[in-house]
Design brief:
heterodimer; A: 155 residues; alpha/beta; Nucleotidyltransferase, domain 5; five-stranded mixed beta sheet; 4 helices; 6 strands; 34% helix; elongated; B: 200 residues; 5 helices
Chain lengths: 155, 200
């Protein structure tokens, strides 16, 4: 034993000192609240399709938009080529309890993912009255559905 | 009894232990008088070392080298997200119903009804310009990325966030990151690398 035992005893004092220091360090540097971010690049509001369309006016242009309104979410898909509208659809999902209906939105997003496998960008429009949490929930759904390039419209 | 000397055995002797054996606490008496167990009291260390080891393993498993300490106002409750990325150390703007705070310094109010004249946040603009100059002075060779973190309370009307975003865009801060409470399984950095995609 440390401090006066027989010679065969293991000296535990430095061991305990080291452990105590390590514990204090780890507790002081511990991150209890895991902070993360969802990133938007405002340049992407004018998406890569717009750039392609500027270069080649006959290029096929696919625009996916999600608009969060106070009582519903509107999900629009618009495909044009050479000024002609090929597809124009608008899905309306009611927010009955005031919260985003993630299940219904996910179904539309899965449908979009199948139709436009190369598409990465979606424009997210928001009404001024909605709260920040609703925007983040929708943003998170979009990223999770494979649309990481979410452009938040600030108008 | 060395002080008793002489050839005759004395009748009178110094008093000894005289408590009736029925009430005798032999072990206690031995300890008090030091007749037995004279060694030091042993502290059982095994249990303590076991606990220390478990605690160290737990803390090391939860240790995160990222997610630096950020100033989070008590009025701000961050929303939850599942598909977020690790947070980087960038200028932080906090938005609550009460106002806008940049790096723990209040730089604007959030009036109940926003009017046209409230669209701009002049103090935020000035502060952003200062930070931009400072960043370019510190790293003159590095191009300005315009990355900023925004944190807002879950119940903050989005109009206040948009106002800050408009101010940021007007000053060339286009990389806006919304702070959320992640689930600890952040997506890898390159999975949503917007800068590389937009460059293509």
């Amino acid at each position: 034993m440390a401090g006066g035992g027989s010679k065969d005893d293991l000296n535990l004092v430095p061991f305990i000192d080291l452990f105590s220091t390590l514990i204090v360090f780890l507790i002081m540097t511990a991150v209890w609240s895991q902070l993360e971010t969802l990133s938007t690049n405002v340049d992407n509001v004018t998406s890569s399709d717009s750039a392609a369309a500027n270069e080649n006016p006959n290029a096929r242009k696919e625009t996916l938009t999600v608009t969060i309104l106070k009582d519903r979410v509107e999900m629009g898909e618009n495909v044009t080529q050479a000024g002609r509208v090929l597809t124009e659809k608008n899905y309306k999902i009611a927010n009955l309890s005031g919260a985003i209906d993630a299940e219904k939105m996910q179904r539309v997003l899965d449908n979009w993912r199948g139709k436009y496998p190369e598409k990465k960008d979606v424009i997210l429009n928001t009404e001024n009255q909605i709260v920040y949490n609703q925007m983040i929930q929708t943003f998170d759904l979009l990223v999770g559905a494979g649309f990481p390039d979410v452009g938040v419209n600030t108008q | 009894m060395s002080f008793l000397k002489g050839p005759i055995k004395r009748k009178i002797q110094p008093p000894g232990y005289h408590i009736h054996p029925k009430y005798d606490l032999k072990k206690t008496r031995e300890k008090l008088h030091g007749h037995k167990d004279e060694g030091e009291a042993q502290l059982p260390l095994t249990a303590m070392i076991d606990m220390f080891s478990t605690l160290v393993i737990f803390l090391i498993m939860n240790f995160s080298a990222t997610g630096e300490v950020f100033f989070i106002s008590k009025d701000v409750k961050l929303p939850d997200a599942q598909h977020s990325r690790p947070m980087e150390s960038l200028p932080l703007i906090s938005i609550t119903n009460a106002g806008v705070v940049l790096e723990a310094e209040k730089i604007g109010d959030n009036p109940v009804y926003l009017e046209e004249k409230d669209a701009n946040l002049p103090l935020l603009k000035a502060k952003l310009q200062q930070i931009r100059i400072l960043m370019q002075t510190i790293r003159p060779d590095e191009p300005f990325k315009g990355q900023v973190n925004i944190q807002a309370d879950v119940n903050t009307p989005i109009v206040y966030v948009k106002r800050v975003m408009n101010t940021l865009i007007s000053e060339g801060w286009n990389g806006i990151n919304f702070a959320v409470r992640g689930n600890g399984e952040a997506m890898p950095e390159d999975s949503t690398d917007l800068s590389s995609e937009s460059a293509e």
